[in-house]
């Protein structure tokens, strides 16, 4: 496990923060850390960065992204509304997603979204029709799926059949000239998530170039833009691997040159935002069961679903505050040896397990756990409604203002009717 420790001041703020009343779990995002990370990502002129809003659509996160100059990949009406509500101009938005209806495409176009990743021939037709109806000239990238000889499977599909775009044979049946109101400017490809090796990523990107260049020729348009999606990974399992940004930028420069494109794009989710976030919840019960140590938390997959669908726990550490009356010492750090604990949530399913993680052996009721890398695919990827527990709170942290509540925890009566 590789727990990523928060800054000292955020750690102190979390220690002082009591979970009370309706609040049994909260997310906190370190916006100073996020801003400096984004600044590092932007120190290059090889790749244009978009933020995949699905990773974390919180207003303050979107605002911090916008301040860094990164633009926005939205995949639903809700994400578009959230981005526009933070005063992002619609010209800085692109629209991806396999379930774009004709009505949705028309709505996005009418509010000024001008860049679409089309994932089917229907979507391209509907974009053409909406463009004619509205007298607009949107640009579009075709989303492509490729197959590799020794492909593997992962959440984005890898080599398996997915609804994300079409194969080159299917796209080859269209002709760019049949869609005169749409500027076909590029191709989009994204099939592997959470990659942890620069070498492997570069190998995959490299293998995409030849088939994509020939597809653009076959369809009859100039390949000006290549969008390689996201997929830059985070080392949840502490395997000592990870994507080095400078190396990735060097590799991308080679891809850009070999594809002969004017622009290379990435839509970063996890790599942009995971590290700035923490999730904190109470330990409600501790027990030994069949010789194994179990901790039961106030919230589990109702606040943090990802471990149950990927088998990758978020790394965790003990958060012991002086307010835990059962702890005698004023000092809140445990010095005890670690042992492995099965970490469970409150739901009535064995799926509600956040992993088997090493923690200090003296962990006890009243302590809290903090999970790192929870800035991406946390709050909005969870299943908060089951069993009517509370919806988690979300905070942001800066050195200047400390922890500020963006949305308080909400009881089930908030959504139950
Ligand atoms: C179209 C698209 N782009 C970008 C991303 C972001 O991926 P990641 O979080 O791996 O960077 C996703 C995630 O599912 C996606 O669907």
Give a structural overview.
With 417 residues, the protein is an alpha/beta fold. The protein has two domains: 8-27 and 274-414, Lyase, Ornithine Decarboxylase, Chain A, domain 1 (Beta Barrel); 89-268, TIM Barrel (Alpha-Beta Barrel), CATH 3.20.20. The protein is built from eleven helices and 18 strands. Strands 1, 11, 12, 13, 14, 15, 16, 17 and 18 form a nine-stranded mixed beta sheet that branches. The model has no long low-confidence stretch (mean pLDDT 94). The structure holds pyridoxal-5'-phosphate.
The string of secondary-structure elements, in order, is HEHEHEHEHEHEEHEHEHEHEEHEEEEEE
Distance between the termini: 42 Å
Shape: elongated
Overall pLDDT metric: 94
How would you name the CATH homologous superfamily of the largest domain? Answer: Alanine racemase
SSE order and pairing:
Elements: H1 8-16, E1 25-30, H2 31-42, E2 47-52, H3 59-68, E3 71-74, H4 77-85, E4 93-95, H5 102-110, E5 115-118, H6 121-134, E6 139-145, E7 166-167, H7 168-171, E8 183-188, H8 198-219, E9 225-227, H9 245-259, E10 263-268, H10 270-273, E11 277-289, E12 292-297, H11 306-310, E13 316-319, E14 338-344, E15 353-360, E16 368-372, E17 393-398, E18 402-407
Parallel strand pairs: 1-17, 2-3, 2-10, 3-4, 4-5, 5-6, 6-7, 6-8, 8-9, 9-10, 12-14
Antiparallel strand pairs: 1-11, 11-12, 11-16, 13-16, 14-15, 17-18
Helix pairs in contact: 2-3, 5-6, 8-9
Bound molecules: pyridoxal-5'-phosphate.
Pyridoxal-5'-phosphate (PLP) is lined by residues 52, 54-55, 73, 96, 190, 193, 229-232, 267-271.
